[in-house]
Amino acid sequence: MFQFFESARIAMAALWSNKLRSILTLVGMIIGVATIIAIVSLITGMNQFVSAEIQSLGATTFIVDREGIITSDDQWWESRKRKRLTVEDMDAIEGACQGCEMVGGRAITMRQVKRGNRHVDDVFIMGSTANFPLIVDFEIEKGYYPTESDYEHRRPVAFVGYDIIDNLFPGVSHIGGTIKIGGQEYTVVGNGVRRGSKLGQSHDNYVIIPLTTFEKQFGSRRSLDIFVKGRDYETLAATKDEVRVVMRARHKLRYDQEDDFGMYSAADIQSMWENFSRGAFVVMIGISSIALVVGGIVIMNIMLVSVTERTREIGIRKAIGARRMSIMTQFLSESLTLSVVGGAIGILVGVLGGAALSSMSGIPMGVEIWSVLAGILVSGGVGTLFGVYPAMKAARLDPIEALRYE
Amino acid sequence: MDEMLIKTDNLWKTYKMGTEEVHALRGVSIGIDKGDYVAIMGPSGSGKSTLMNLIGCLDTPTQGTYELNGRQVAHMNDDELALVRNKEIGFVFQTFNLLPRATALHNVELPLIYNGTGAETRLDMAKRALEMVDLSDRMTHRPNQLSGGQRQRVAIARALVNNPSLILADEPTGNLDSKTGEEIMALFDRLHRAGNTIILVTHEHDVARYADRILHIRDGQVEREEVVQRSAA
């Protein structure tokens, strides 16, 4: 044990006295570990983000829409030709579905929102049913969400996000105030809690109005997203089937035709994301493995140089009684120290690089302890593995030859 | 003190140079008692370095037996020899052979590290050895901050630190000026009087005369043995 610390100390001193050489030696290791850390952190961050987003959907809720989960261009073009989902579809599902606790819907558009001479561009305008906040996890801060009665009477009432309040109602109360969307006046009746921005996008840049009001102003050509909340998780599959049967009947599909609508739950989105991130993960592990192997070879090379340079020292140590194992331990702990220092720098670079990427792209980031430990372990393992050959070479030197070495 | 420390019987060492066999040693039989001060002398190529390597357990003979402090060492493997070197032998080299980046104290500690002596004991023993060679005030110096004579004294302290049964010095004054060389030889004298067994390998008769006995080596054999007359020294 003492020998290890001793060797580690010697290795650190040697590293320090050859700074440029050390940095060049460790570049491969640093890149390898940094890549692992950065990618794992970003994917972890995305995972946390995605699952937080998905959890707001709830485990028993699923979405019926025209496109479904799209994973290719072709699918997207094909989905464009499909029938729109309508309020009638939504009502039909609600009427026929035994397993459905609640059925809601929404339509979306992007518009400019004005108040006097102030305006906010590209606001996310959503027409929804009154039960929407009960289906998805949506927190109301002040006032109320457009009600069933607002829906029935197509009232021009609006529930707004903080971007609207901050930009259109600076220093004035917004409840009861008036905003204009495409020339139509809306009365603000409530607002959601501040959600901040994620992935570089503000999540407060929205106005929610009753779906009926939405269709009155913007027409009903848009396809609805129908949100279905099942009664319980165990019967979710059966509930989905009920909804599927209703939709297929309404779209007059033959038994051999595929669904021309999509249905997906939080779990489906999650598993799609996991597939994607697993793929990205494997690719990045591949890339960083190459960097690590290159790093290991460079370390082996530098250790061979070190063994040659210090042949005489090895001779001295052997003459005064160092056994093969002691010499082996010494050089192995040097390559281990070297590579772990590289790994530590790599972790630092990875975390900083990940943070920089995250702040540029808005992708959240979560540094996982296990990835840091893995970084240390992997770099240490590489250093040990590639240090074995030079260390064995050192241990096998003949003391007489080594002492004679100039 | 006439207890036998070293006993070699018909030592041969043969090297293969291509197809030719070179006999560096041709049947050397010597005996050295505990407390002896013996010089091994001979011109270069005489085989004295080979003999020193064998006595120092750095190498094993092709033929013959070697008993060191009651143990047969002729057929030991690398690691066993390392143990014997660590326990029984203190080396002093012509070129000092100190670790350049380590302090004097650390250089002296080194043999103790390899036999697993605890840190505190080690430090005490190393300090005591440095005191013995009058270097208590240079413990934290590195070799390049020391003069040649001081470096050699650090090397001697390193040789002494483990209380070996034998101090093996190979041309210890070869890299020193004559005055410093004399000081080093005086130090060996002192160590001898304190009871240490010393073997001195040299090609200089003036240096060899510090010993009690000189073994003249020529062509791989002991040519003759000379007992040094104290009055002449």
Task: Report on the architecture of this protein.
The complex is a heterodimer of chains A (406) and B (233). The mean pLDDT of chain A is 87. In chain A, strand 2 (100-115) and strand 3 (118-128) form a beta hairpin. Chain A contains 14 helices and twelve strands. Chain A is elongated and about 100 Å long. Chain A has helices spanning 2-17, 19-55, 73-80, 87-96, 132-135, 148-152, 162-168, 211-218, 236-250, 266-309, 311-319, 324-361, 369-395, 399-404, and strands at residues 61-65, 100-115, 118-128, 140-143, 157-160, 178-181, 184-192, 197-198, 201-202, 206-210, 225-230, 262-265. In chain A, the strands form two sheets. A six-stranded mixed beta barrel of chain A has the order 2-3-10-5-7-6. A two-stranded antiparallel ribbon of chain A has the order 8-9. Chain A is 58% helix and 18% strand. Chain A has 406 residues and is an alpha+beta fold. The longest helix of chain A is centred in the C-terminal third of the chain and has 44 residues, at 266-309. By secondary structure, chain B is an alpha/beta fold. Chain B is built from seven helices and eleven strands. Chain B has helices at 48-55, 78-88, 104-114, 119-132, 148-160, 178-193, 205-208, and strands spanning 4-17, 20-28, 31-33, 37-41, 63-68, 71-72, 89-92, 166-170, 198-202, 213-218, 221-227. In chain B, the strands form two sheets. Chain B has a six-stranded mixed beta sheet, sandwiched between helices. In chain B, strands 1, 2, 3, 5 and 6 form a five-stranded antiparallel beta sheet that branches. In chain B, strand 8, helix 6 and strand 9 form a beta-alpha-beta unit. Chain B starts with a strand and ends in a 6-residue tail after the last strand. The model of chain B has no long low-confidence stretch (mean pLDDT 92). Chain A binds chain B through residues 2-3, 6, 10, 13, 312-313, 315-326, 399-400, 403, and chain B through 53, 56, 58-59, 78-79, 82-83, 85-87, 91, 93, 97-99, 101, 110-111, 113-115, 119, 158.
